[in-house]
Amino acid sequence: MYTVVTGAAGFIGSNIVKALNQRGVTKIIAVDNLTKADKFKNLIDCEIADYIDKQDFIERIQAGHFDGEVEAILHEGACSDTMETDGRYMMENNYRYSTILLDWCQDQDVQFLYASSAATYGASSVFREEREFEGPLNVYGYSKFLFDQIVRQRLAQDPSSQIVGFRYFNVYGPREMHKGRMASVAFHNFNQFRADGKVKLFEGSHGYDNGGQMRDFVFVGDVAKVNLFFLDHPEKSGIFNLGSGRAQSFNDVAVAAVNGCRKAKNEAALSLDELRAQGLLEYVAFPEALKGKYQAFTQADLTKLRAAGYDAPMSTVEEGVSQYIDWLHQHV
Hints:
Number of strands: 13
Strand order of the largest sheet: 3-2-1-4-5-6-11
Oligomer: single chain
Largest sheet: 7 strands, parallel
Radius of gyration: 20 Å
């Protein structure tokens, strides 16, 4: 029996493939769209049984080619560009693709774990997996939100096969180098500091209490662990927040990133005030294009995830970013 990972050459997908490998699973069908070919690098150190283009995969499952051969689909494939304005493309790539796979998994009694998003909450200040707190601000968030509603309908029908959705918050970590502008703040901080010797942040990055932004930043290693936990527990279904459960400032990320870079040079860690005083941290105006389409505050309520039995601690920004910067120094 095969395990299918869609978006397998992407950021979270490739980390899941690697995590499966680390537990000895190699009978993996990797599904992706390599129009942007650089993503292949994420799979170089991974072991898979086959690679199939996304469109070919859709056609083949609809033709019955994989009936009885798949144990689980971990569906990470999606357009994750929150600035994408082509609604037809977004809905076809995120919503319709997901419904095709969901229908097939239910018909075949196959475990279905998929990527939702904290973007479903929009400007809400409450991040709990309930309809009243949801209101996406862009078509990306809407594509994820709408599919979650379909999943809720299916779950209400008490399906025999597992359906699990993960509302990812701000994920960062290894294997995101292909994402360009959509890569994490930690990745951009690393590149800025390496190129310019300083990091630039948007005004308001100092924290929500001072009128700025604070986000729930979650390390991709934790994301992979949660996915595998539910893969191991096919009796558990539902839609779950997947964040750190903490709101931390962009300053926290920058401090951890810069100090990670300084550590690589055997230089002492500096405080936020010291970084600012030495000109290693600067602030620039918030982009007009993001105003009104950007979540100023996010913090995952992990009550439901914990109630489902996942009790491992989530990395803090300081822990996760430090580990990530070490990885970047070895791989970039």
